[in-house]
Amino acid sequence: MTDAGLERWRLVLGAPAEGRIGGLAGGAAERDRMLDWLYGRDSELGERGVRRGGARPETREGGDGPSQITTVDWLDAVHRLFPKETIERLERDAVERYEIHEVVTDPDVLARIEPDRTLLRAVLRTKHLMSPDVLALARRIVEQVVRELMERLATEVRQAFHGTRSRRPSRRRNSRDFDFRGTIRANLGHYRPDERRLYIEEPRFLSRTRRHVEQWQLILLVDQSGSMAGSVIHSAVTAACLWGLPGLRTHLVAFDTSVVDLTSDVTDTVELLMKVQLGGGTDIAGAVGYGAGLVEDPRRAIVALITDFYEGGDEHRLVREVRSLVEQGTQVLGLAALDEDANPDYDRKTARRLADAGAHVGAMTPGRLAEFVAERISR
Q1: Domains in the chain, start-ordered, CATH in brackets?
Q2: What pLDDT is recorded for position 5?
């Protein structure tokens, strides 16, 4: 039997099989912990020597069990660690078989839990399981976390765009706009060698505005598969922060096997996130093709593809679409993550092919994306 086959049996049987099959490490060990958190509470499995002595659930304040995993942590982890079909089974077993209702049905628990980004991701992933009353309460979590993110990211965006200046001289004398190099060049005739001093008689300043603001497009294509939840959240908030900036028109498009243009909802980030359907397959090529159709002036367009690059569609078509955009002069970003950590898990082979086709591939924080856009617009 292959190592992968042994690992699957070890995950099925749990700790009782460790003596014969061996232990687990890395991601497999984390998957085993998540399975044990759920199925370790099953007395029938324990009697059969499967998943015996599993961890008990605890509240965020802690507990007396062997594990510190909370329900929210568990929901977040299974979406990172398992494929879609397994996630659906685990969520269904948690809610229906083991009646773990803290997040999806119990408003008292939702009201007690302090909203944070982990909980926001869990809400977005499980909102399809919530009753209308609980969904209304969960919306409070979305609103609070989004508001906090907006306040912080809006500052980063303003800082990125603040000070982007044209090279046109200005008559307004403001210390922030002082043109050091231009001033030196304009006053070289006033240099006194005997004193080794340059006397400034004609200071120069730069303009921070353009007489004609040239329109740019930023097209955000966001993969809404389960592993991209953090990037979906930050993409929505970043799009809202960029919305309405002079010289920039922002589009936000979410995709799995289909494409949903969410641009009309960008100004209501909470409503936008409540519409996102995390999970499902991925057709990246189809999304890039849709984004290409939105481009008006290729040389004044940035297409930011935010995905883990695990293509479920036609990979050859994906490469062709990216190459076509690059050849027409469009800036293409392939971002494996758009969040604070910028520490992604992605298909490196596909990402490398897109880089070879001319895309800038990597991971960014929202602030760095804003800086990238600001640099292009100010040229």
Answers
A1: 1-99 (no CATH), 165-207 (no CATH), 214-377 (3.40.50.410)
A2: 53
